[in-house]
Amino acid sequence: MAVCKKDKKIGYIHSFETFGTLEGPGIRFVVFMQGCLARCLYCQNPDTWELNKGKKNTAEEVFEKIKNYVPYMKFSKGGVTISGGEPLLQIEFLIDLFKLCKRASIHTAIDTSGFFNKKDKNLPKLIKLTDLFIVDIKASQKDLHKKIASRNIDESLSFIDMLEKAKKPYWIRYVLIPGMNNSKEDLAKLKTILSNLKYCEKFEFLPYHTVGRHKWETLSLKYPLGRFRPATVKDIKAAERIIS
């Protein structure tokens, strides 16, 4: 969570990616924030979980890095994406950063699960400064969502409702885990959720994979989905047919 140092908000940063192509439109400068309260079973970045760790940067310091890649972003109609960790744990820092981005006409996006501190009254300001949100839903049913993410799906749905009321464009992503969250019941419930949304510009299934498993092992953590296989193109297409 961002702290204040001489009137400048300090963000805890895990890492940067300078040529991201999966985190929104065009070429993206991706900032991975440190800190997350969820414990997703398939998390690719468990090293981002711990709060108040990572590199301490002001918004100005991060923006100095971003400026070097503006030509690539502008040419590709890309921009800056904040991921994590959970970005919404550091709202004040992101407001400062996005103000700088907007002055430079840089497209802004946040990749989030919608797990925010309800006591933080600054979220509407951040929503206004953000051009696109990419919201991850872990499962459509409450018990299963809790099992996968250790968080209640109502948190994510509440955040989506805020985006709807603000008429803010957003995408929704759903990591498909064969044998866990791809039953007909799961997908029928997901279809119901999606059917009531007006400002969701894009929905996509992401195939579950085990790329992040080595990070769990490096951190001496037991990887919880060892018995589940990666999702195939066939799995994705079958799920798409159910919700179409």
Verbal overview:
- It is a single chain.
- This protein has 244 residues and is α/β, with parallel strands linked by helices.
- The protein has one domain: Aldolase class I (TIM Barrel).
- The chain contains 9 helices and 9 strands.
- Strands 1, 2, 3, 4, 5, 6, 7, 8 and 9 form a 9-stranded mixed sheet that branches.
- A hairpin with a 7-residue loop joins strand 2 (8-20) and strand 3.
- Helix 1 packs parallel to helix 3 and helix 3 (91-103) runs parallel beside helix 4 (123-129).
- The mean pLDDT is 95.
Based on helices, strands and strand pairing, what is the structural class? alpha/beta
**How many runs of DSSP E, i.e. beta strands?**
9
The end-to-end span amounts to 39 Å
> What's the story with the biggest beta sheet?
9 strands, mixed
Spell out the helices and strands N to C.
EEEEHHEHEHEHHEHEHH
In CATH, the topology is named TIM Barrel
Radius of gyration, in angstroms, nearest whole number: 18 Å
Secondary structure elements and their pairing?
Layout: E1 3-5, E2 8-20, E3 28-33, E4 55-58, H1 59-67, H2 70-76, E5 79-83, H3 91-103, E6 107-112, H4 123-129, E7 132-136, H5 142-149, H6 153-165, E8 170-176, H7 184-195, E9 200-207, H8 213-218, H9 233-243
Parallel strand pairs: 3-5, 5-6, 6-7, 7-8, 8-9
Antiparallel strand pairs: 1-2, 2-3, 2-4
Helix pairs in contact: 1-3, 3-4
